[in-house]
Write a structure and sequence with these properties.
Layout (H helix, E strand, L loop, with lengths): L7 E4 L5 H9 L3 E3 L9 E3 L3 E4 L9 H7 L3 E4 L3 H8 L11 H12 L3 E8 L2 E11 L2 E9 L4 H13 L8 E5 L3 H5 L3 E4 H11 L15 E2 L17
Parallel strand pairs: 8-9
Antiparallel strand pairs: 1-3, 2-3, 4-9, 4-10, 5-6, 5-11, 6-7, 7-8
Helix pairs in contact: 2-5, 3-4
């Protein structure tokens, strides 16, 4: 279906909700080229980064940090996207078209933010697209040490349910930082096979609109819950 040796599989099309959802259902995600006026690039990595829900590595210091935060879902989506798209960040890629497209997906209930709050202040978070059992992570940010990791712990806990074995947490590409958190690479064909299974699942209750916020699950000392998206 795609070039066996190239992550870039298509150029062009639009960022309408239907286009984006069809892309995710077929293993693609968009990124701007970086040149204003250029068409959208669509990627399906030959080696896809995924985070097994039972494989998240949570250090002792991160577990302690989790106790200081409240995790909220979808209470500050635009602010999370804007923080991820801060033009002062190195290798920033979120432009105005991407921002508008994902805000529209959020309005329609397909895109979600997971946020780490402390003392009423948003200090870290991530956002992505949820379709059935797929959560396609797009980007994350932090304003305090480990705050983006805390949000990731919160996301993983919200994806863990009776269907966890078949859910798919996609992080696009692995990096050394993400690998240290438990991200692994899988071949494109394996990813697409897992994607087909995941799409048949219901959305996890923890990402449903109106999900109750709270402390990070699994942050007690006896628990071990174990960019694009992923940097610290």
């Amino acid at each position: 279906m795609y070039d066996a040796d190239d992550d870039l599989v298509a150029i062009g099309a639009d960022l309408a909700p239907g286009t984006l959802l069809s892309a995710y259902r077929n293993g693609l995600f968009p990124m701007p080229s970086g040149t204003p006026g250029d068409p959208v690039y669509w990627f399906s990595p030959v080696h896809r980064g995924v985070l097994p829900l039972d494989g998240l590595v949570v250090s002792r210091s991160l577990r302690r940090a989790c106790r200081d935060y409240e995790i909220r879902v979808d209470t500050a989506f635009a602010e999370v996207v804007d923080a991820c798209g801060d033009p002062t960040r190195p290798q920033g890629w979120i432009d105005a078209d991407i921002r508008a497209a994902y805000l529209r997906l959020h309005e329609l209930g397909w895109a979600h933010s997971v946020e780490a709050w402390r003392d009423g202040e948003l200090l870290g978070g991530l956002y992505g697209v949820a379709i059935g059992g797929l959560f396609a992570g797009e980007s994350m940010f932090h304003r305090a040490r480990d705050a983006s990791k805390v949000a990731l712990v919160g996301l993983v806990e919200r994806l863990r349910d009776d269907h966890a074995a078949d859910r798919l947490l996609d992080v696009q590409w692995s990096t050394p930082h993400l690998a240290s958190l438990g991200v692994v690479e899988v071949p494109r064909a394996t990813y697409l096979a897992r994607l087909r299974r995941a799409l048949r699942l219901p959305l996890p209750a923890g990402l449903a609109r109106g999900a109750v916020p709270g402390a990070v699950p699994g942050a007690d000392p006896g628990a071990d819950p174990g960019r694009a998206i992923g940097e610290e």
